[in-house]
DNA sequence: CGAGCGGTTGAGGCATGTCAAGAGTTGTGG
DNA sequence: CCACAACTCTTGACATGCCTCAACCGCTCG
């Protein structure tokens, strides 16, 4: 692990409050790894031996069942993921693959579990992190059950706009194909939906989103802080399943 | 609070490992309340001032958006709920209403937060509880995105059968209307789906489920431990969103 | 240059929601 | 005790959202 990377990790909410010595100890037992693009680094069902941290690149979390698969989240630096499985010493519920060349830190789950039993500051951080992640997934479930695909697309685009500083125009952070799967629809359906939203204040230009009439689009999406945030929460972290907080 | 209720609460994973004195302290600041049927005791968006525990009766957690609503979980004794919101000192993401006359214990969130900073055994329990809940919601999201309604119904019925001790016949723990909403479909659609499953090893008689051909039904549902459990986990607890662990 | 891939578009079909009506059940008040 | 209201559940008819399959375009990369 490179020395200049430590501060970046230390800066995460999860690690920010623990003692210096304990942080060093945790990092000493961890190691970094670089993965090429498209590598399935985690397979659902495998034992969760490590907590992962994305340092560079990006990672897709996805789930498989039968012949189907769907993407559950996309993570960008600096984020942790699969904290819950590491803690429960249980099998991964999701698989992970790199979307590009990606650098990952691996922290042994057993060290993690030992650490929060020893460092009470750290255990409080873990609690806050998990609670935050839990709420994110609940929001996700709400949007899936309460909104139709059109509304999910519109609210997603508005949320991303907000993350881009409220800009009326920005570039999609992920491929449309992947976004479709994240939003629980097919690529074809997303394509048609984006086209249809041209009557509602949206314009697409390739991967570029242009919000031409925010009020109109908002009326359709009905953004709700109990689904879309804010509290965009403490989501510098990952695995709370934001698709690309970046 | 009745003295005979304390052991039931103490028996929950969440409270079982903390010191006697601290448990007593937490209970001392809590109080019990009885609600009539159909009362909306928690409204989404309100501040989460209390951790709740169902002692008798049953509670539906549901979410609203726009004009629509859907049920997210049904909780039965003895279960805690809305732990994450209490911890984050954040607004409830879901509403709760009683399905029958229900007795609830209310633990002030601030006391809860103070307690896990003080009692490290308790903080470990909270971590395990939250991690477990998180995984439950992820499983829920997976079933929503990967299975169609028919498959969700079939797998739900098989899971319930397992909870009923593997019995081929049992009575639905909730009304069909509510079950439909939990499974992300309309009541009409559930009704038709149940009828259609008669070709696949299922027979309904009112609220009674009769599995006539388990192999056939399983082939359709393709139960998966990464979605349906087991690890039916430590789900004596609630808010991991099982519908009626009974 | 050709293969592969993401994206788009069209045609068609199935799954699911909506609306409406009726049977059965439960609960309530006269 | 009965009448009535309210509710769940079911069924039918219909509309529509969404998926599937197929073709095609444009781009990238070997």
Features:
246 residues, DNA-binding, 2 domains, Arc Repressor Mutant, subunit A, homodimer, 4-stranded antiparallel sheet, Jelly Rolls, alpha+beta, 43% helix
What secondary-structure arrangement, pairings included, does this model have?
Two copies of one chain form a homodimer.
Chain A: H1 6-10, H2 13-16, H3 20-28, E1 31-35, E2 40-42, E3 50-56, E4 59-65, E5 68-75, E6 79-81, H4 83-88, E7 95-98, E8 102-108, H5 109-118, H6 120-146, H7 149-163, E9 169-171, H8 176-182, H9 187-196, E10 202-205, E11 208-211, H10 214-221, H11 225-228
Antiparallel strand pairs in A: 1-8, 2-7, 3-6, 3-8, 4-5, 4-7, 9-11, 10-11
Helix pairs in contact in A: 5-6, 7-10, 8-9
The first copy, chain A, binds a DNA duplex (30 and 30 nucleotides) through residues 148-150, 175-177, 185-189, 191-192, 195, 206.
Concise account of the structure shown:
Chain A is of the alpha+beta class. Chain A contains eleven helices and eleven strands.
Describe the protein.
Two copies of one chain form a homodimer. Chain A is an alpha+beta fold. The first copy, chain A, has two domains: 3-141, Jelly Rolls (Sandwich); 147-237, Winged helix-like DNA-binding domain superfamily/Winged helix DNA-binding domain (Arc Repressor Mutant, subunit A, Orthogonal Bundle), CATH 1.10.10.10. Chain A has eleven helices and eleven strands. Chain A has helices spanning 6-10, 13-16, 20-28, 83-88, 109-118, 120-146, 149-163, 176-182, 187-196, 214-221, 225-228, and strands at residues 31-35, 40-42, 50-56, 59-65, 68-75, 79-81, 95-98, 102-108, 169-171, 202-205, 208-211. In chain A, the strands form three sheets. A four-stranded antiparallel beta sheet of chain A has the order 1-8-3-6. Chain A starts with 5 loop residues before the first helix and ends in an 18-residue tail after the last helix. The model of chain A is unreliable at 231-240 (pLDDT under 50). At the A-B interface, strand 4, strand 5, helix 4 and helix 6 of A face strand 4, strand 5, helix 4, helix 6 and helix 11 of B. Chain A binds a DNA duplex (30 and 30 nucleotides) through helix 9.
